[in-house]
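Kindly review both lines to help learners:
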Amino acid sequence: MSGTTETGVLRSTVQVDGETASYLTAGQGGPALEQGGPAVEQDSPVVLLLHGTYWSRVWLPVLGRLAEAGLRPLAVDLPGLGRSGGELTLETATVPALADWVARFASALELSGPIAVAGHDIGGAVAQHLLVHDRLEVPRLALVNSVLYDSWPAPHVARFRDPEVVAATTADELLAARRQAVTAALAGAATEQRIADYLDTWTDPRVRRSWLAMAGAAESRYTLDLVPALQRSTTPKLLIWGEDDGFEKVEYAEKFALEIPRTTLIRIPEADHIPTENAPGQIARALIDFFMA
C-alpha cells in the first residue's frame, strides 16, 4: 500500500519478518508491489536513509530534492518506530540486530547491487555497521549528526538504560522528555507544528516501548569496535554536522574526518541535532553531489 504524505513524497510498506515496514520515498522510487513486481526499479542509484532515536521524519525535508536529482531515496522506519509495525526489545534494538533487519528490509524490496547509505543519530551507527560488516554493498556512506566513537548515548537517553527509571516513567513524562529533546534538536526550525509532527508517533504505547528498548540497548562499544575497520576503509564518506549539537558534538566529526580515510566534513552553522530541518537545500545538495559523484 502507499499514500501521499506531501507533494512528490510517498509512504509505502513492505513485509519484513512478518511485520509491516514503513518507508518514505519520492520520485520514481515508489513500490510496484501491488502489481507483483519488485519494489524499487534499479535505473537510478538507491540511497537508503536511516534514522536513530527519531524516525523517518528527519529525512522528509530532503527526499524530494534527492529524487529530483535522479536518486532513489528510501527513508525507512526501523521496526516498532515511526509508522512501522512490530516492537523492539533490548535484544532486537542493538546496532548489530538493527543492521541485520535493514539488510532484510533491502532484501524484501528486492534491492541488489550497490546501495548508498546515510544515517542520522543511532542510524549512523547502523550505517557504519552495514559498511564494516558487509551486510550490504555500500559504495558511499554519509553520516548526519551521527553517533561516533564514545559520543553516545546522550545523558537524556542513557538514563533509560536503568530498568527502574523505565518502570517509573509515565507516558506523559516520556512525551514531555521527547518534546524537550525534539525542540532543542530542531533549534531555529522548531515550530509547534513541526514539534507535533515529530512527537506524533510516540503517542502509541508500542512505539514508546520500542523507543525505550532502543535507549536501553544504546552502547558506545558498537561504534568504538568499528574504528579499526573504518581506519582501513577506502569507501568515500561524508559527514554533515549541525554545529550546535550539544551531544553529538562537531568535535567528534572533526576527529573522525582526521582519522578515517576518504572522509569529508560539511559543517552546518546555526543547526543542532536535526540539521535537515535547518538547511534542507544545502544538505540535499551536499548529499546529491556526494552520492552522484
The radius of gyration is 17 Å. The chain has twelve helices and nine strands.
